[in-house]
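# nightly structure sweep
# worker-07 picked up a monomer target from the shared queue
# config: single-sequence mode, recycle default, output format = structure tokens
# input follows
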Amino acid sequence: MLVIRRRAGEAIMIGGGIEVRILEAGPNRVKIGVIAPAEVAVVREEVVLARAQNRAAANPTADALEALARGLRQVS
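# output follows
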């Protein structure tokens, strides 16, 4: 992991084709801009995590389905 200090208006380059620019810097927040080629997806981390959770919920494991079936049998 690269740890670097940047001020508003400064940027870093990744792989020659991706630019991360500091737009604003405050005491508790930093506003950044990302310029990348169209084929590079740029998303927030929480979006990736939510997608993974949604996929997991949509495709339950056999063990999870069996546990659900056992629970339903007990209720009946």
